[in-house]
Specification:
Number of helices of chain A: 16
Helix content of chain A: 55-70%
Structural class of chain B: alpha+beta
Number of domains of chain A: 2
CATH class of the largest domain in chain B: Alpha Beta
Structural class of chain A: mainly alpha
CATH topology of the largest domain in chain B: C8orf32 fold
CATH architecture of the largest domain in chain B: Roll
Strand content of chain A: under 5%
Number of strands of chain A: 1
Number of strands of chain B: 14
Oligomer: heterodimer
Radius of gyration of chain B: 19 Å
Order of helices and strands of chain A: HHHHHHHHHHHHHHHHE
Strand content of chain B: 35-45%
Number of helices of chain B: 6
Shape of chain A: globular
Helix content of chain B: 10-25%
Order of helices and strands of chain B: EEEEEHHHEHEHEEEEEHEE
Largest interface: A-B, 16 and 43 residues
Distance between the termini of chain B: 8 Å
Distance between the termini of chain A: 64 Å
C-alpha cells in the first residue's frame, strides 16, 4: 500500500471525526446557554472562550472577533473556512482526502461523504442553521455516524481500514480530552474539587452530553454528576466507546494490526508511545489524576497524542532515506579442497 | 580403520556482521565402505541447528545468525570406521561404451553427464578425452585412462588456484589442487557420456590440512566406483566420504551469506588421527 494512500485514509477518518466532535461541543453548549437566564456579555465571553480553546483556535478567532458571542463563535466554528478546524473545513478536507483514495473506499461511503459536503455548503444548510441549530448538528452527527457504520460494516478490514481506525481514535481521544478540559478554570489546580454546585452539575452534564455519555454515566454513577465522576468516565473508563482510554486501547490495537507486532511488543516509535499511553491510562486512578491537576494531565495527554501522530507520520508516511552503511549481501568465504602434501 | 577427525572453520570479520545464513556439509555418510560412529557439530555464536537431506542425500546442517557478530566458528568432530573394500580390478572389462546411451536412461544419472557450475562440456575437452581414450571401448578402462591422463596433464601445486577456479582455467594453466583435479576428471568423463560426480571428504594422512576431493564414475553393471585423480588410484580405507554432487558447488563444506563488510579472514584446520 502506498504511504500517501495510508495518509489519506488516516486524515479522511480523522477529519470526519473532528467535524462530528465540533458539532457535539457546539450543540451542547448552545443548549446549555438556554439554561442560563442571566448571563451578561462578559459571562458569555468567559463561557464561550473555553469552547473555542477546545479546538485550539483561540488566536484565529480573536483576529476576527473582539468578543465571543454565541453567534460569532458558532459562525466561526461551523462555517468559516478560514478556520481550518471548523465543521465545514473539516468536511471539505475529509472529502478531499477521500477523493484521492476513492478506490480504497466504497461507493456508498463516497456518496455519503459527498452528500454531506454538498449539504454543508448549500443554502439549505444555512436555512436549517437559522431555523434550528439542533437539527443542523444532528444532521452532521447522523452523517458521521453513518460513515463510521459504513466503514465498519462494508469496508474490508485490511491495512487501509486499520489506518482509518488509527485516525478516528486518535482524533476522538484528543477531542474527548479537550471536551473534558472545557471547565478546567472552575477546578482547583490540584486535588479533588469540592461538592458540586447546581451550576457545576449543569456544566458537567453538558460535557457528558457532548460525548453522548449521559445515559452510560447514569447507569454507572447514578445521578451523581460531579467533576470526579465525569472525569473518571471520560478518561479512564474501559468500556465506554468515547472515553480516552477506550480510544487509546483501540489505537494501540490498530497500530499493531498494521505492523503485525504483538501486543506485548513494539516495532516502531508510534507503537511504543501508544503502548506506554495505554498502560498509563490502564493503571491510573482518577484521584492520582486530580492530584497532579486535571488540566495538566490532559495537556500532557494531548502532547502524547500529538507525539503518536508525529511518530506515525515518520514511520509510515515520510521515511527519510537511510543514510550510512549500505550493506549488501556478502558471500561467506569458501574453503578450497586440497589434498595433503604428498 | 578407526579415524577421529576434527574440522574447524573460523571466520573473523573486520566489523560486526549480521543476518548470516549458512549451510554446512560436514557429516560423512554411512555406507558399505564406512560407518559413522559419532558426529558432533558446534557453532559459535550459539545457534539453533537444523538439518535436512539434500537432493543428493547429503546430510546438510543449516543455521542462521541474525544478530551482529564478529566471529563465526564452526567445528565438527567425528568418529568413523572405514572398511576395506574390494575395489574393481584394473584389468576388468565389464561393459562396452555402446551401452552407455541406454544406461543413461536410469534414474539419477542425467545430472552427472551435463555441464555444471565448475565443469563445462566443451569441444576442446572432448578432444582431449577422445585422444586419451583412443581405441578403448570399455567404460571402466576409459575411466582409468582418463584418471591417468589427468594425473599427467595437470600438475599438483598447492595454492596455485582458488576455490572458485573453473575447470577450463585449470585446463589452460595445467596446475591445481585436488578440487581442480576432480573437476577436470569429471569434465573429461562427461564429454564421453560417462556419468561422473564429485566427492567431498577427508583423506587420512598426517599432513591433512583441508578436506579432500575425488570422483566417482558410473560403470553400468557395477555402479558408482570411486577414483582419486590426484593420487591416481581407487579409494581405500584412508578415505572418509562426506557427500557427493555435480561439483564443488553442490558439496562445499561451508556455504553461506551474510550482511556486512567484505573484509574478513578465514582459517581452516583439519586434524585426522587413527585410533585403535
Amino acid at each position: 500500500m502506498l504511504s500517501r494512500v495510508a495518509n489519506s485514509l488516516y486524515w479522511m477518518s480523522r477529519y470526519i471525526e473532528r467535524a462530528e466532535n465540533v458539532a457535539r461541543i457546539l450543540e451542547v453548549n448552545l443548549q446549555l446557554l438556554l439554561d442560563f437566564r442571566s448571563l451578561d456579555d462578559s459571562d458569555l465571553h468567559d463561557y464561550w472562550m473555553p469552547v473555542i480553546q477546545c479546538t485550539g483556535d483561540q488566536d484565529a478567532f480573536l483576529v476576527r472577533h473582539q468578543r465571543a458571542t454565541a453567534a460569532g463563535v458558532a459562525e466561526f466554528m461551523v462555517f468559516r473556512q478560514e478556520n481550518p478546524n471548523s465543521i465545514v473545513s473539516s468536511i471539505c478536507q475529509a472529502r478531499e482526502n477521500a477523493r484521492m483514495v476513492r478506490d480504497q473506499i466504497t461507493v456508498e461511503t463516497w456518496e455519503e461523504l459527498n452528500r454531506l459536503y454538498l449539504f454543508v455548503l448549500s443554502a439549505a444548510a444555512r436555512q436549517m442553521w437559522l431555523d434550528s441549530p439542533t437539527d443542523f448538528f444532528n444532521e452532521i452527527k447522523r452523517s458521521s455516524l453513518q460513515l463510521v457504520g459504513l466503514s465498519h460494516a462494508t469496508h474490508i478490514h485490511n491495512e487501509g481500514w486499520w489506518f482509518t481506525q488509527v485516525g478516528r481514535h486518535i482524533e476522538r481521544a484528543d477531542k474527548t480530552s479537550r471536551i473534558l478540559d472545557m471547565r478546567h478554570h472552575t477546578l482547583p489546580p490540584r486535588g479533588l474539587p469540592g461538592a458540586a454546585t447546581q451550576t457545576t452539575a449543569l456544566e458537567w452534564s453538558a460535557i457528558l452530553r457532548s460525548c453522548s455519555a449521559w445515559d452510560a454515566f447514569k447507569s454507572i454513577y447514578g445521578a451523581e454528576v460531579n467533576p470526579r465522576n465525569v472525569a473518571e468516565m471520560l478518561l479512564l473508563n474501559e468500556d465506554f466507546p468515547r472515553s480516552v482510554r477506550f480510544c487509546v486501547d483501540r489505537l494501540n490495537e490498530a497500530l499493531r494490526r498494521i505492523s503485525g507486532a504483538s501486543s506485548q511488543r513494539f516495532s516502531n516509535e508510534a507503537e511504543k508511545l501508544s503502548g506506554r499511553l495505554a498502560a498509563s491510562l490502564q493503571f491510573s486512578t482518577i484521584e492520582e489524576v486530580f492530584e497532579t491537576g486535571l488540566h495538566a494531565h490532559l495537556d500532557r495527554l494531548q502532547v502524547n497524542l500529538n507525539a503518536i501522530g508525529d511518530a506515525l507520520f515518520h514511520t509510515y508516511i515520510f521515511r527519510a532515506f537511510d543514510t550510512g552503511n549500505y550493506e549488501s549481501f556478502v558471500q561467506q568465504e569458501e574453503q578450497q579442497q586440497q589434498a595433503a602434501a604428498f | 580403520m578407526k579415524l577421529d577427525v576434527v574440522h574447524r572453520t573460523h571466520y573473523a570479520y573486520a566489523a560486526p556482521v549480521r543476518e548470516s545464513f549458512n549451510e554446512v556439509r560436514l557429516r560423512p555418510v554411512s555406507n558399505e565402505d564406512q560407518t559413522l560412529d559419532s558426529f558432533l557439530l558446534k557453532v559459535l555464536p550459539p545457534v539453533r541447528l537444523q538439518d535436512y537431506r539434500d537432493f543428493y542425500s547429503n546430510y546438510v546442517h543449516h543455521f542462521d545468525i541474525p544478530e551482529p557478530h564478529d566471529t563465526l566458528a564452526i567445528e565438527s568432530r567425528l568418529r568413523v570406521t572405514t572398511h576395506p573394500r574390494p575395489g574393481v580390478s584394473d584389468e576388468m572389462r565389464p561393459v562396452s561404451r555402446v551401452h552407455l546411451k541406454s544406461a543413461l536412461k536410469a534414474d539419477g544419472l542425467y545430472d552427472f553427464v551435463q555441464a555444471s557450475h565448475y565443469v563445462d562440456i566443451a569441444p576442446e575437452t572432448w578432444r582431449l578425452a577422445v585422444d586419451a581414450t583412443q581405441g578403448e571401448d570399455d567404460v571402466w578402462q576409459c575411466a582409468l585412462r582418463l584418471m591417468h591422463f589427468v594425473r599427467e596433464y595437470v600438475s599438483y601445486q598447492s595454492q596455485s588456484t582458488q576455490v572458485h577456479t573453473h575447470m577450463r582455467e585449470v585446463l589452460v594453466h595445467r596446475h591445481g589442487v585436488c578440487q581442480d583435479f576432480a573437476h577436470v576428471m569429471i569434465g573429461l568423463c562427461r564429454t564421453l557420456q560417462i556419468p561422473a560426480r564429485y566427492v567431498s571428504g577427508y583423506l587420512a594422512t598426517e599432513k591433512a590440512s583441508a578436506t579432500h576431493a575425488w570422483t566417482e564414475v558410473f560403470v553400468p553393471g557395477i555402479g558408482w566406483v570411486a577414483l582419486d585423480p590426484t593420487h591416481d588410484r581407487q579409494t581405500d580405507e584412508t578415505y572418509v566420504k562426506i557427500g557427493v554432487g555435480r561439483d564443488y558447488f553442490d558439496v562445499a563444506p561451508v556455504k553461506g551469506t551474510y550482511r556486512g563488510t567484505t573484509e574478513r579472514e578465514m582459517e581452516v584446520e583439519v586434524r585426522i588421527e587413527r585410533r585403535g
